[in-house]
Amino acid sequence: MPLVDYRITRFQFARDRIVGDSQVRASHVHVATLELIDSEGHVGLGFAQSLFHPLPSEEELIRTFDEEVWPNLKGQPAIALAHQVKRPRGGHLNRSTHPFGEAIQHALWDVAAKAANLPLWKMLGAKRSKVRAYASGLDYHLSDDVFCSLFTQAADQGYTGFKIKVGAPEIERDIHRLDLLKQAIGPNAKIMIDANEAWSPKEAIQNLDTIRRAGHEIYWLEDPILRFDIEGLKLLRETAGNTLINSGEYLDVSGKRALIQAHATDMLNVHGHFTDVMRIGWLAADMGVPITVGNTFLELGVNVALALPEVEWLEYSFQNFEHLVETPYKIEDGFIYGSETPGHGLVLCEDARQAYRQPIIIDNTQLGPAPAQQRLALK
Protein backbone atom coordinates (compact mmCIF):
# COMPACT_ATOMS: atom_id res chain seq x y z
CA MET A 1 0.00 0.00 0.00
CA PRO A 2 2.06 2.94 -1.26
CA LEU A 3 1.80 6.49 -0.01
CA VAL A 4 -0.17 8.58 -2.47
CA ASP A 5 -0.89 11.94 -0.82
CA TYR A 6 -0.31 14.17 2.19
CA ARG A 7 -1.84 17.13 4.06
CA ILE A 8 -0.13 19.78 6.17
CA THR A 9 -2.08 22.00 8.58
CA ARG A 10 -0.48 24.85 10.50
CA PHE A 11 -1.61 25.75 14.05
CA GLN A 12 -0.73 28.63 16.35
CA PHE A 13 -2.39 29.25 19.72
CA ALA A 14 -1.66 30.45 23.26
CA ARG A 15 -0.52 28.12 26.03
CA ASP A 16 -2.41 28.08 29.31
CA ARG A 17 0.81 28.92 31.16
CA ILE A 18 4.37 29.95 30.38
CA VAL A 19 6.61 26.89 30.15
CA GLY A 20 10.39 26.68 30.15
CA ASP A 21 13.57 26.29 32.13
CA SER A 22 16.28 28.57 33.52
CA GLN A 23 17.33 29.59 30.01
CA VAL A 24 14.21 29.59 27.82
CA ARG A 25 10.48 30.29 28.01
CA ALA A 26 7.52 29.78 25.69
CA SER A 27 4.02 31.25 25.88
CA HIS A 28 2.55 30.01 22.57
CA VAL A 29 2.30 26.79 20.57
CA HIS A 30 3.66 26.63 17.03
CA VAL A 31 2.90 23.27 15.46
CA ALA A 32 1.99 21.74 12.11
CA THR A 33 0.31 18.40 11.54
CA LEU A 34 1.46 16.09 8.78
CA GLU A 35 -0.99 13.51 7.48
CA LEU A 36 0.36 10.82 5.15
CA ILE A 37 -2.23 8.91 3.13
CA ASP A 38 -1.78 5.51 1.49
CA SER A 39 -3.60 3.93 -1.46
CA GLU A 40 -6.10 2.20 0.86
CA GLY A 41 -7.06 5.48 2.53
CA HIS A 42 -5.17 4.94 5.79
CA VAL A 43 -4.12 8.28 7.27
CA GLY A 44 -1.02 8.59 9.44
CA LEU A 45 -0.71 11.62 11.73
CA GLY A 46 2.48 13.35 12.82
CA PHE A 47 3.38 16.61 14.56
CA ALA A 48 6.13 19.11 13.70
CA GLN A 49 6.73 21.64 16.45
CA SER A 50 8.77 24.81 16.83
CA LEU A 51 9.17 25.56 20.52
CA PHE A 52 10.05 29.23 20.49
CA HIS A 53 9.34 30.77 17.09
CA PRO A 54 6.38 30.68 14.68
CA LEU A 55 6.55 28.17 11.87
CA PRO A 56 6.52 29.54 8.32
CA SER A 57 3.21 29.92 6.56
CA GLU A 58 1.29 26.80 5.59
CA GLU A 59 1.98 27.57 1.93
CA GLU A 60 5.73 27.65 2.59
CA LEU A 61 5.63 24.45 4.65
CA ILE A 62 3.85 22.66 1.82
CA ARG A 63 6.26 24.06 -0.79
CA THR A 64 9.36 22.87 1.05
CA PHE A 65 7.85 19.50 1.96
CA ASP A 66 6.83 18.93 -1.65
CA GLU A 67 10.32 19.80 -2.87
CA GLU A 68 12.55 18.28 -0.19
CA VAL A 69 10.63 15.39 1.38
CA TRP A 70 7.69 14.09 -0.64
CA PRO A 71 9.75 12.75 -3.60
CA ASN A 72 11.41 10.29 -1.17
CA LEU A 73 8.05 9.15 0.27
CA LYS A 74 5.67 9.11 -2.69
CA GLY A 75 4.83 5.64 -3.95
CA GLN A 76 6.66 3.86 -1.14
CA PRO A 77 5.03 1.58 1.49
CA ALA A 78 5.03 3.20 4.93
CA ILE A 79 6.42 0.15 6.75
CA ALA A 80 9.43 -0.03 4.44
CA LEU A 81 10.19 3.65 4.98
CA ALA A 82 9.81 3.27 8.75
CA HIS A 83 12.42 0.50 8.77
CA GLN A 84 14.72 2.02 6.16
CA VAL A 85 18.41 2.22 7.05
CA LYS A 86 20.51 4.92 5.41
CA ARG A 87 24.20 5.65 5.51
CA PRO A 88 25.11 8.13 8.26
CA ARG A 89 26.86 10.45 5.78
CA GLY A 90 26.39 11.84 2.30
CA GLY A 91 24.53 14.77 0.80
CA HIS A 92 21.28 12.85 0.47
CA LEU A 93 20.89 12.83 4.26
CA ASN A 94 20.71 16.58 4.68
CA ARG A 95 17.94 17.62 7.05
CA SER A 96 14.90 19.31 5.55
CA THR A 97 14.59 23.07 5.93
CA HIS A 98 11.74 22.75 8.43
CA PRO A 99 11.30 20.30 11.37
CA PHE A 100 9.50 17.47 9.57
CA GLY A 101 11.73 14.61 10.75
CA GLU A 102 9.85 13.55 13.86
CA ALA A 103 6.44 14.13 12.22
CA ILE A 104 7.40 11.81 9.36
CA GLN A 105 8.30 9.02 11.76
CA HIS A 106 5.01 9.51 13.67
CA ALA A 107 2.97 9.39 10.48
CA LEU A 108 4.81 6.48 8.85
CA TRP A 109 4.39 4.21 11.86
CA ASP A 110 0.75 5.28 12.22
CA VAL A 111 -0.01 4.33 8.59
CA ALA A 112 1.92 1.07 8.89
CA ALA A 113 0.08 -0.01 12.04
CA LYS A 114 -3.29 0.92 10.56
CA ALA A 115 -2.49 -1.13 7.46
CA ALA A 116 -1.68 -4.06 9.77
CA ASN A 117 -4.89 -3.38 11.77
CA LEU A 118 -2.90 -3.27 15.01
CA PRO A 119 -2.31 -0.69 17.74
CA LEU A 120 1.23 0.55 17.19
CA TRP A 121 2.47 -0.52 20.63
CA LYS A 122 1.30 -4.06 19.92
CA MET A 123 2.90 -4.03 16.47
CA LEU A 124 6.16 -3.00 18.14
CA GLY A 125 5.96 -6.08 20.37
CA ALA A 126 4.73 -4.64 23.67
CA LYS A 127 3.63 -7.10 26.36
CA ARG A 128 2.01 -4.51 28.65
CA SER A 129 -0.68 -1.90 28.10
CA LYS A 130 0.34 0.79 30.60
CA VAL A 131 3.46 2.51 31.90
CA ARG A 132 3.97 4.80 34.88
CA ALA A 133 3.91 8.53 34.11
CA TYR A 134 5.62 11.23 36.14
CA ALA A 135 4.25 14.75 36.50
CA SER A 136 6.52 17.38 34.98
CA GLY A 137 5.74 21.05 35.45
CA LEU A 138 7.98 22.78 32.88
CA ASP A 139 7.63 25.11 35.80
CA TYR A 140 10.61 27.44 36.07
CA HIS A 141 8.64 30.60 35.20
CA LEU A 142 5.56 29.84 37.30
CA SER A 143 4.78 31.80 40.43
CA ASP A 144 5.02 29.88 43.69
CA ASP A 145 1.23 29.75 43.95
CA VAL A 146 0.73 28.32 40.46
CA PHE A 147 3.65 25.93 40.99
CA CYS A 148 1.99 24.57 44.13
CA SER A 149 -1.42 24.35 42.45
CA LEU A 150 -0.03 22.35 39.55
CA PHE A 151 1.77 19.77 41.66
CA THR A 152 -0.99 19.49 44.27
CA GLN A 153 -3.43 18.61 41.50
CA ALA A 154 -0.95 16.14 40.03
CA ALA A 155 -0.59 14.39 43.39
CA ASP A 156 -4.37 14.30 43.78
CA GLN A 157 -4.60 12.63 40.36
CA GLY A 158 -2.40 9.75 41.50
CA TYR A 159 1.06 10.61 40.22
CA THR A 160 3.91 9.28 42.35
CA GLY A 161 6.87 10.83 40.51
CA PHE A 162 7.42 14.56 40.05
CA LYS A 163 10.02 16.55 38.13
CA ILE A 164 10.83 20.24 38.49
CA LYS A 165 13.19 22.60 36.72
CA VAL A 166 16.32 23.74 38.54
CA GLY A 167 19.36 25.75 37.47
CA ALA A 168 18.65 29.13 39.04
CA PRO A 169 21.63 31.47 39.49
CA GLU A 170 21.24 30.98 43.25
CA ILE A 171 20.82 27.42 44.55
CA GLU A 172 18.58 28.78 47.34
CA ARG A 173 15.86 29.38 44.77
CA ASP A 174 15.99 25.73 43.66
CA ILE A 175 15.83 24.55 47.27
CA HIS A 176 12.86 26.85 47.93
CA ARG A 177 10.97 25.21 45.04
CA LEU A 178 11.85 21.74 46.33
CA ASP A 179 10.50 22.75 49.75
CA LEU A 180 7.24 23.84 48.10
CA LEU A 181 7.09 20.64 46.06
CA LYS A 182 7.43 18.47 49.16
CA GLN A 183 4.59 20.38 50.82
CA ALA A 184 2.40 19.82 47.74
CA ILE A 185 3.04 16.12 47.14
CA GLY A 186 3.90 14.65 50.53
CA PRO A 187 7.00 12.83 51.77
CA ASN A 188 6.99 9.51 49.89
CA ALA A 189 7.04 10.46 46.21
CA LYS A 190 10.01 10.20 43.86
CA ILE A 191 11.49 13.59 43.01
CA MET A 192 13.42 14.30 39.83
CA ILE A 193 15.20 17.54 38.93
CA ASP A 194 16.17 18.85 35.48
CA ALA A 195 18.92 21.44 35.12
CA ASN A 196 18.84 21.61 31.29
CA GLU A 197 22.65 21.83 31.14
CA ALA A 198 22.77 24.89 33.41
CA TRP A 199 25.67 23.61 35.53
CA SER A 200 29.32 22.63 35.16
CA PRO A 201 30.37 19.22 36.57
CA LYS A 202 31.76 20.73 39.78
CA GLU A 203 28.69 22.95 40.21
CA ALA A 204 26.45 19.90 39.79
CA ILE A 205 28.37 18.02 42.50
CA GLN A 206 28.21 20.98 44.89
CA ASN A 207 24.55 21.74 44.18
CA LEU A 208 23.43 18.14 44.60
CA ASP A 209 25.24 18.01 47.95
CA THR A 210 23.59 21.29 49.03
CA ILE A 211 20.17 19.97 48.01
CA ARG A 212 20.72 16.80 50.04
CA ARG A 213 21.83 18.73 53.11
CA ALA A 214 18.61 20.76 52.79
CA GLY A 215 16.67 17.53 53.26
CA HIS A 216 15.83 16.51 49.69
CA GLU A 217 16.66 13.11 48.24
CA ILE A 218 16.69 13.22 44.46
CA TYR A 219 15.74 10.14 42.41
CA TRP A 220 17.37 11.39 39.22
CA LEU A 221 19.28 14.44 38.04
CA GLU A 222 18.51 15.15 34.39
CA ASP A 223 20.82 16.84 31.88
CA PRO A 224 22.93 18.54 34.57
CA ILE A 225 25.83 19.55 32.28
CA LEU A 226 26.66 19.99 28.61
CA ARG A 227 25.47 17.04 26.52
CA PHE A 228 28.86 16.27 24.96
CA ASP A 229 30.83 16.36 28.23
CA ILE A 230 31.11 12.60 28.57
CA GLU A 231 33.98 12.81 31.06
CA GLY A 232 31.98 15.22 33.20
CA LEU A 233 28.93 12.93 33.10
CA LYS A 234 31.11 9.97 34.12
CA LEU A 235 32.42 12.01 37.06
CA LEU A 236 28.84 12.84 38.13
CA ARG A 237 27.76 9.23 37.83
CA GLU A 238 30.64 8.19 40.09
CA THR A 239 29.95 10.87 42.74
CA ALA A 240 26.14 11.19 42.76
CA GLY A 241 25.53 8.41 45.29
CA ASN A 242 21.98 7.09 45.11
CA THR A 243 20.91 9.81 42.68
CA LEU A 244 20.75 8.56 39.10
CA ILE A 245 22.16 10.58 36.21
CA ASN A 246 19.62 10.84 33.37
CA SER A 247 21.05 12.17 30.12
CA GLY A 248 21.01 11.88 26.34
CA GLU A 249 17.93 14.01 25.65
CA TYR A 250 19.71 16.35 23.25
CA LEU A 251 21.81 13.71 21.45
CA ASP A 252 21.05 11.88 18.21
CA VAL A 253 21.30 8.10 17.92
CA SER A 254 25.07 8.19 17.47
CA GLY A 255 25.51 10.45 20.48
CA LYS A 256 23.28 8.25 22.62
CA ARG A 257 25.28 5.20 21.59
CA ALA A 258 28.52 6.93 22.59
CA LEU A 259 27.00 7.87 25.94
CA ILE A 260 25.99 4.27 26.65
CA GLN A 261 29.30 2.83 25.51
CA ALA A 262 31.22 5.26 27.73
CA HIS A 263 29.11 4.23 30.77
CA ALA A 264 28.45 7.93 31.26
CA THR A 265 24.80 7.78 32.30
CA ASP A 266 22.58 5.70 34.55
CA MET A 267 19.49 6.31 32.42
CA LEU A 268 19.01 7.25 28.78
CA ASN A 269 16.48 9.95 27.92
CA VAL A 270 14.66 9.51 24.58
CA HIS A 271 11.85 11.35 22.82
CA GLY A 272 9.57 10.98 19.80
CA HIS A 273 11.59 9.74 16.82
CA PHE A 274 10.03 6.27 16.86
CA THR A 275 12.47 4.53 14.51
CA ASP A 276 15.51 6.02 16.22
CA VAL A 277 14.13 5.26 19.69
CA MET A 278 13.51 1.61 18.86
CA ARG A 279 17.05 1.25 17.52
CA ILE A 280 18.78 2.88 20.48
CA GLY A 281 16.33 1.10 22.78
CA TRP A 282 17.60 -2.25 21.52
CA LEU A 283 21.18 -1.25 22.36
CA ALA A 284 20.19 0.10 25.77
CA ALA A 285 18.37 -3.14 26.60
CA ASP A 286 21.37 -5.15 25.44
CA MET A 287 23.59 -3.18 27.82
CA GLY A 288 21.09 -3.03 30.69
CA VAL A 289 20.61 0.75 30.63
CA PRO A 290 17.14 1.94 31.72
CA ILE A 291 15.32 4.32 29.37
CA THR A 292 13.03 7.20 30.26
CA VAL A 293 10.70 8.69 27.66
CA GLY A 294 10.70 12.47 27.85
CA ASN A 295 8.09 14.84 26.49
CA THR A 296 6.55 13.69 23.22
CA PHE A 297 3.78 15.59 21.51
CA LEU A 298 0.47 14.50 23.04
CA GLU A 299 2.36 11.60 24.69
CA LEU A 300 2.82 9.72 21.38
CA GLY A 301 5.90 8.19 23.00
CA VAL A 302 3.68 5.84 25.01
CA ASN A 303 3.85 3.46 22.03
CA VAL A 304 7.63 3.02 22.25
CA ALA A 305 7.57 3.24 26.06
CA LEU A 306 5.31 0.18 26.21
CA ALA A 307 7.40 -1.72 23.66
CA LEU A 308 10.85 -1.21 25.23
CA PRO A 309 11.57 -3.40 28.27
CA GLU A 310 13.89 -0.88 29.95
CA VAL A 311 11.28 1.92 30.19
CA GLU A 312 9.84 2.56 33.65
CA TRP A 313 8.72 6.20 33.30
CA LEU A 314 7.13 8.50 30.72
CA GLU A 315 6.99 12.29 31.15
CA TYR A 316 3.62 14.03 31.28
CA SER A 317 3.70 17.82 31.52
CA PHE A 318 0.07 19.01 31.34
CA GLN A 319 0.41 20.94 28.08
CA ASN A 320 -2.74 22.22 26.42
CA PHE A 321 -2.65 20.19 23.20
CA GLU A 322 -5.43 17.68 23.80
CA HIS A 323 -8.09 19.67 21.94
CA LEU A 324 -6.19 18.89 18.71
CA VAL A 325 -7.18 15.20 18.69
CA GLU A 326 -10.42 13.24 18.88
CA THR A 327 -9.37 11.17 21.90
CA PRO A 328 -6.16 11.65 23.93
CA TYR A 329 -4.46 8.77 25.70
CA LYS A 330 -6.01 7.56 28.93
CA ILE A 331 -4.12 8.60 32.08
CA GLU A 332 -5.34 7.17 35.39
CA ASP A 333 -3.77 6.79 38.84
CA GLY A 334 -0.37 7.84 37.54
CA PHE A 335 -0.32 5.42 34.58
CA ILE A 336 -0.70 6.16 30.88
CA TYR A 337 -2.32 3.53 28.65
CA GLY A 338 -1.79 2.59 25.03
CA SER A 339 -4.75 3.08 22.70
CA GLU A 340 -6.57 -0.05 21.51
CA THR A 341 -7.35 1.46 18.09
CA PRO A 342 -5.16 0.64 15.05
CA GLY A 343 -2.23 3.00 14.61
CA HIS A 344 -0.64 5.13 17.30
CA GLY A 345 -4.09 6.05 18.57
CA LEU A 346 -4.40 9.77 17.84
CA VAL A 347 -6.63 11.26 15.14
CA LEU A 348 -6.72 14.95 14.28
CA CYS A 349 -9.94 16.62 15.42
CA GLU A 350 -11.68 18.32 12.50
CA ASP A 351 -13.28 20.88 14.79
CA ALA A 352 -9.82 21.84 16.04
CA ARG A 353 -8.57 22.09 12.46
CA GLN A 354 -11.31 24.60 11.74
CA ALA A 355 -10.95 26.53 15.00
CA TYR A 356 -7.18 26.75 15.46
CA ARG A 357 -5.70 26.48 11.98
CA GLN A 358 -3.56 29.52 11.16
CA PRO A 359 -2.31 29.29 7.56
CA ILE A 360 -0.25 32.47 7.93
CA ILE A 361 1.89 33.80 10.76
CA ILE A 362 -0.22 35.74 13.25
CA ASP A 363 1.13 38.10 15.88
CA ASN A 364 0.73 36.36 19.22
CA THR A 365 -1.18 39.33 20.61
CA GLN A 366 -3.99 38.62 18.13
CA LEU A 367 -4.51 34.96 19.05
CA GLY A 368 -6.83 35.27 22.02
CA PRO A 369 -6.96 33.07 25.14
CA ALA A 370 -5.58 29.56 25.41
CA PRO A 371 -7.84 26.59 24.63
CA ALA A 372 -9.39 24.93 27.66
CA GLN A 373 -7.07 22.47 29.39
CA GLN A 374 -8.65 19.08 30.01
CA ARG A 375 -6.46 17.67 32.79
CA LEU A 376 -5.46 20.73 34.79
CA ALA A 377 -7.17 23.78 36.23
CA LEU A 378 -4.47 26.24 37.24
CA LYS A 379 -5.46 28.96 39.67
From TrEMBL:
Tell me which cofactor or cofactors this protein depends on: Mg(2+)
Gene3D superfamilies hit by this protein? Enolase-like C-terminal domain (3.20.20.120), Enolase-like, N-terminal domain (3.30.390.10)
The answer on whether this UniProt entry bears the keyword Transport reads: no
Give every Mandelate racemase/muconate lactonizing enzyme C-terminal domain span. Answer: 144-240
Q: Which residues cross the membrane?
A: none
Any Pfam family matching the protein = MR_MLE_N
Which processes are annotated in GO (biological process)? Answer: carbohydrate catabolic process
Q: Which GO terms describe its molecular function?
A: hydro-lyase activity; magnesium ion binding
| Record's keyword annotation contains tRNA-binding | no
Keywords of the record: Magnesium, Metal-binding
User: What name appears for this protein in its UniProt entry?
Assistant: Mandelate racemase/muconate lactonizing protein
